[in-house]
Amino acid sequence: MGINYITVTLIAAAVIIAVIAFMTRKPRSFSKLAAIAATITSIGGILLYGYAFSNLMTNPALAVIRTVYAVIGIFVGKDEMSVIRSVHPFDQPGWQIVHWLIQLLGLFATASAAVSAFGRGTLNRLKMFLMKNRELNIVYGSGDDALAFGYHLLDKSSRRMVLFVGGSGAKTGEKNDCVHRSDTAALNISSGFLKRIGVQPGTKKVNLYALDPDPLKNLSYAKKMQEALEKDKILKSQASLVCLAYEPDYGSRFTTDSPYGYGSLHIFDIPSMNARLLMQAYPPYKYVSFDEKGIAQNDFRVMIVGFGETGRAALVNLTANGQFEGSSFHADVFAPDCENASGPFRQAHKEMFEQYDIRMHSADGRSVEAAAYLKQYGRELQQIVVSTGDAILNREILQTYEYLFVHEDYCPEMLILHKGQLSHWKGENEAMEVSNIYKEEILSNDSLDRTAKIINQTYCRNEKTTDENWAECPGFSRMSSRASADFMEAYLKMAGKTFDDVKNDKWDLDPELLENMAKTEHLRWCAFQWANGYSVMPDEVWQARAEQYRKESEAGAQSRIRITKDDRHGLHGCLIPWDDLDELSKREAQVTGSDPDYKQRDRDNILAVSELVKALDQAGYKPQ
Fold it and tell me: Is 155 in the same domain as 260?
């Protein structure tokens, strides 16, 4: 008796646990199975009870009513076995088992309906409990992009849990390993909420992806999350933030001296990420050839059609990444009324427009002027980037250009930037290659900034870890490190080396090659500064800062002034030609007593590529 009791109990428990696990991990399949169970229960109940009551009752109408009543009773746990047991074959064990299976299927269907109607919160909590040891990713926001990104995270790893907060998770019942919360506790995230979802000091990592179309909502939610993290003493090494928003101060509102909060931070806007996606897939260096001394053999020319936020971000990034010793950069922008509509942008990037050949054309991309430009410069043109903001118009423009080049023996790369997507146009009748920013390798801090973090670490050279230094890195310095990271493979091409060559100690550079690569590094750095609003420091400002440095030093204090750099006013003394750097180094050495040797810094950056490649290799980086 005891053995039978234990056996029955264990089997019953196993079945119940399996059903619960199936409900939490396969909610969509569970719903389908419940519908099938309800159908089988109804048909089976009608057949069984219909047969039984037709034999027990002489009145057909009463037999029908009794059958309907019994079938309905199945779904609420009522059975009629004691009544129909006297009818053959229900006196046999086999048919009794069939009867009880139908009863179980009915209860299963009812329980499923109850969970769907009233128990979603309980089911979500059960899911969270079963997956409490997994990495937690919170995806906040409404819209298909947020939902698709959360699903993408799950597809990349089975050791993750995704918690959708807000409208984005309304359909999460169709996907495994995810939970949707839109209650007050989740939307107004607090210390207590973090504890309930298993986030505690020293435990699992939590990543917040704030991806609502409204940037202000993202910033507000991210700030609430930060306050909760700090209150619960969640270490920076445990938490990261990816936030869709425009932040001129590079996310300084989330940068604190506290050891708690976000350790990794990425504030992004869609136009800028679109442009960076362009730099990763189609950087200018891929269209430039170099001789054995690292000197570029051709210029880089780009045509940009459309000059909204995305077109402007593309111009900034192409300018910053299109400078090489021996070549010139040329960009032509076509957009109706772009001269009048781009005033604030041009003022903010005044030096960029003054230093480089950037020409604005207040003309439609389909205009006679645009056609004449393509006829004159088509053979020299490496890229056409279309970003009008209208998907249909983008395609129409490239269809027009395709006809212009159809009989030519050349055709520039034709690309579309639109709402977080980069599309490579291959022809009207061919499918476009499409890349999307809503991918982990694009948005994730770990993937996106892996190279930039290591570059920053080479500058810091202290006892802190790479992540610790990155967490303390100012926003503009992060941007600078990212720009250097995006350019690394250009240096490999200039030197005629592969990633494997360098990691195997084959970074032996000829002195002339090293010097030309250092000149390119200076050109790249200047372009980045100009593209981000910096200007050449006037001599009178330099002299005033040098005098202030002298006074502080003579007073016995250690001056914290960097003579050549004024971040507050966006001025830098090194924004000068390469040949003038030695004189600048000499002047600064006379004031500080220490030679900064700015040329050597550029050479050192090139030599450090070897160290960078080895660090990347150890971190698991694989070149594209």
Answer: yes
